From TrEMBL:
GO molecular function: isomerase activity
Pathway(s) where this gene product acts: Carbohydrate metabolism; hexose metabolism
Catalytic activity: alpha-D-glucose = beta-D-glucose
Organism field: Metabacillus endolithicus
Domain of life of the native organism: Bacteria
Stated name of the protein: Aldose 1-epimerase
Keywords: Carbohydrate metabolism, Isomerase
Family: Belongs to the aldose epimerase family.
PROSITE patterns (UniProt xref): ALDOSE_1_EPIMERASE
Length: 348
């Protein structure tokens, strides 16, 4: 196993570094200090061909100007906060609005656009990078000086393990996720509509017209959102369900997970034979089928378009600060936010 450090580019006169983690089987994960972005995941198909299975760019400008959160850590709070405001211990907080009337993925110039400190390491059977960032009190409207760590570990079992931790000196909100777009066809040969998804989930969150949760948990039975048995993404989208239409003719919904660290999320692309298994301790996963992606930019020579990638965003429920019956995303002083997700790659 080995790790290679290179200069990826420059931001505000500071170097942006890339770290390429490689195991003994040729699986390779490359990430950069800008936003902890995963730029590449190289894995074999059923014939042993190694190809990239995530969406990303090769330069800083594209990430700053075109990226819909490709590969990044988003925070302090993933997803939308309605009306860009919340109340905590009787105090009202206003956040910047960066998606209509909402606050999305931590706001403008959030974790995805920060330069993180990085420390590489290597142990028996694994190699990794620990990223860290100190978010000052008041950044994007959030209270508390928040110290965040995100650690990426590659194992010899073709697993990418992502773990998060955070502490704050004031009560605040935290709900982190990684926003990688996966496409298992390899090097964007096809879109993700024929990918087959399976979820251990009986319920999903209903969304309103503004893509905010209504607070209602809906049963997946007899809906396009029933992925308890593996089915192609296009089957869900073709269902013409009202919730599919609301999300731009696709999926952009939180699913409650029935199980944890037990193959609760699987994604398969049969032509390449690649399989991705996701296991987490998080309560839910937001499945996003890139329905909002426009064609105004290119991704390494491929024209961007809808359904080119799928995000599997393991996290707490979005906008939970406004719904007492959701699990809270409140982090108290002297508490530690801690969660992890493992992405395992294999072939059929």
């Amino acid at each position: 196993m080995n790790i290679t450090k290179n200069t990826f580019g420059e931001l505000n006169s500071e170097n942006v570094y890339s770290y390429s983690l490689e195991n003994d089987h040729g699986m390779k994960v490359t990430c950069i200090t800008l936003g902890c972005i995963i730029t590449d995941i190289i894995v074999p198909d059923k014939n042993g061909n190694h190809e990239n299975v995530v969406l990303g760019f090769d330069d800083i400008d594209s990430y700053l100007n075109d990226s819909p959160y490709f590969g990044t850590i988003v925070g302090r709070v993933a997803g939308r906060i309605g009306n860009a405001e919340f109340e905590l211990d009787g105090k009202q907080y206003s956040l910047p609005k960066n998606e209509n009337n909402n606050h999305l993925h931590g706001g403008p110039e959030a974790f995805d656009r920060k330069l993180w400190a990085a420390k590489e390491f290597q142990h028996d059977g694994e190699v990794g990078v620990e990223f860290s960032y100190c978010s000052p009190d008041g950044e994007n409207g959030y209270p508390g000086n928040l110290t965040v760590h995100a650690t990426y570990v590659l194992t010899n079992n073709n697993e990418l393990k992502i773990s998060y931790s955070a502490t704050s000196d004031k009560k605040t909100l935290v709900n982190l996720t990684n926003h990688t777009y996966f496409n298992l066809s390899g090097n964007l040969k096809n879109d993700i509509l024929s990918h087959k998804l399976q979820l251990k989930s009986n319920q999903f969150l209903e969304l309103g017209e503004n893509l905010l949760p209504t607070g209602e948990f809906l049963e997946v039975d007899n809906t396009p959102f029933d992925f308890r048995n593996s089915k192609a993404i296009k089957e869900a989208i073709e269902g013409n369900h009202q919730q599919i239409q609301i999300a731009g003719n696709g999926v952009d919904h939180p699913f409650l997970l029935n199980d944890h660290h037990n193959e609760e999320i699987t994604l398969v692309e049969e032509q390449s034979g690649r399989k991705l298994t996701v296991e987490t301790d998080e309560q839910s996963v937001v499945i996003y089928t890139s329905n909002m992606m426009d064609d105004s930019f290119e991704i390494r020579g491929t024209q961007a378009r809808k359904y080119l990638g799928i995000c599997l965003e393991t996290q707490g429920l979005p906008d939970s600060i406004h719904f007492p019956h959701f699990s809270p995303c409140v982090l108290d002083v002297n508490e530690e936010y801690k969660t992890s997700t493992t992405y395992s790659f294999s072939v059929l």
